[in-house]
Design goal:
The protein is an alpha/beta fold. The chain folds into three domains: 84 residues, Phosphorylase Kinase, domain 1; 185 residues, Transferase(Phosphotransferase), domain 1; 111 residues, Rossmann fold. The strands form three sheets. Strands 1-2-3-4-6-5 form a six-stranded antiparallel β-sheet. The protein has a five-stranded parallel β-sheet with strand order 11-10-12-13-14, sandwiched between helices. β13, α15 and β14 form a beta-alpha-beta unit. α4 runs antiparallel to α12. The two termini are 45 Å apart.
């Protein structure tokens, strides 16, 4: 049902005009009759509102959202139903989105980008304290308002992604992702339970775009972007923009926010905020940001050469399994260069003494073999290796529950980080339980490299 100007919802909200439409519903500017107040009225799509259990969850979550009172959040005025219409009325904000700013200006200066992120973290801290997780932080959902003391950030659609969980659960069962792939955390990609640290990952992605002009992984098909967030190392700020200079403390804070494992990120929004405040306390030098009108970068400069990581000491040996001895030998050589004890193994060889098993997948049969091995309790964590551009292979590994995916040829830092993490879990005997949607093997905790 389309609402038209002049139509009244629930006897008290008169539609003025449509402002925008998303997957959950349509946002209208409306006048609250009697009070003469302009509001943003979000009306849920009928197919969303009719999902079993959604109405009850909507009312519960809207009550929680109404308790979120922060200058950086959008105040909820009212919510309810009008026959088949389900609506929520919120404060009407003015200004422009960070997405529009990026399109116009290209990148932001370090103080400006970090200052805006600090404001977002203050809102996240208040929301997380109420158990509200945004789940869809991105530049389009961050609005800038003019204020006598400077720019103020408003976080839009706060909690509405959480409200949609019951609806999205049904959708994701047939393979559709929740949220915006370019800014989603690995655990959210997998359909697992998320907490406030998922929002910190998204904010790290936002900061990456504010500072470099591009998100961590370039825009492309959803499956490719999703697989990159799950398995590929996140490019550092310097790798993405070697022509710019970034404080080391800022680089560390952004990369830590985008760690694949939630436990490796800051413990909460307050901790990340303190890290960024420490950046603001330091003098900033470096090249200025893109000039106004330059626009967002469409390509990535060639990354700087980075020295390989140091050797790993005291770890269990690594096994390499491949149908081709030449490919296996090259991977063994790469592992040895990174300091691992590694050797080629046969298909029937016992694997109990190894700390990790790397399987070179050169087809569907070898991928299936890797997934079978990952399900066995006598096999160490299994990492599948293959071409990064083979997205069918990447997603097959993703869905099969293997520990991780290593693109070939391997990046030394990525190889060291992922294999070391697998060995550590093997030594501790702390391989986690299967993740939701991981398939019967379900061994992996998700991707482990940055």
């Amino acid at each position: 049902m389309r609402l038209v100007p002049g139509q009244v919802v629930a006897g008290r909200f008169q539609i003025v005009r449509a402002l925008g439409e998303g997957g959950m519903g349509v946002v209208h500017e409306a006048e609250q009759l009697g009070l003469g107040r302009r509001v943003a009225l979000k009306v849920m799509h009928p197919h969303v509102a009719s999902t079993p259990g959604f109405v009850e969850r909507f009312h519960r979550e809207a009550q929680v959202l109404a308790r979120l009172r922060h200058p950086g959040s959008v105040e909820v005025y009212d919510f309810g139903a009008d026959e088949e219409l389900l609506f929520i009325a919120m404060a009407l904000v003015s200004g422009e989105s960070l997405e529009a700013v990026l399109l116009r200006e290209g990148v932001l200066s370090v103080p400006r980008a970090v200052g805006l992120a600090v404001q977002v973290l203050e809102v996240l801290g208040a929301a997380h304290a109420l158990g509200i997780v945004h789940r869809d932080l991105k530049p389009a959902n961050l609005f800038l308002e003019s204020h006598p003391e400077g720019e103020r950030v408003k976080v839009l659609d706060f909690g509405l992604a959480t409200l949609s969980e019951s609806w999205h659960t049904r959708i994701t069962q047939v393979g559709t992702a929740v949220g915006t792939p370019g800014f989603m955390s690995p655990e959210q990609m997998r359909g697992g339970l998320v907490d406030g640290r998922s929002d910190l990952y998204a904010l790290g992605c936002v900061l990456h775009e504010l500072l470099t002009g591009s998100p961590p992984f370039p825009v492309g098909p959803s499956v490719e972007v999703s697989a990159a967030h799950l398995y590929r190392p996140v490019p550092s700020l310097r790798e993405a923009r070697p022509d710019l200079s970034f404080p080391a403390r800022l680089e560390s804070a952004v990369m830590r926010a985008m760690e694949k494992l939630p436990t490796a990120r800051p413990v909460d929004a307050a901790a990340m905020r303190e890290e960024l405040l420490a950046v603001l306390a330091e003098p900033v030098s470096g090249a200025p940001p893109a000039r106004r009108g330059e626009g967002k970068k469409t390509g990535r400069p060639t990354p700087r050469e980075v020295a390989p990581p140091g050797p790993v000491v005291g770890s269990a040996p690594v096994a390499v399994l491949s149908e081709r001895t030449d490919a296996g030998a090259r991977l063994v050589e790469s592992l040895t260069t990174c300091g691992f004890q590694a050797r080629f193994v046969g298909a029937a060889e016992p694997l109990l003494g190894f700390g990790a098993l790397l399987v070179i997948a050169e087809g569907r049969a070898s991928l299936a073999r890797a997934r079978e091995l990952a399900a066995r309790p006598d096999v160490p964590p299994v990492l599948v290796c293959g071409p990064a551009e083979d997205w069918e292979l990447v997603t097959g590994a993703l869905e099969g529950g293997v520990f991780d995916f290593i693109p070939l040829p391997p990046d030394p830092r990525d190889l060291t980080r992922k294999v070391s993490r697998a060995q550590k879990l093997k030594r501790q005997g702390s391989l986690p339980p299967p993740l939701p949607g991981a398939g019967p093997s379900g061994r992996g905790p998700g991707p482990t490299g940055r």
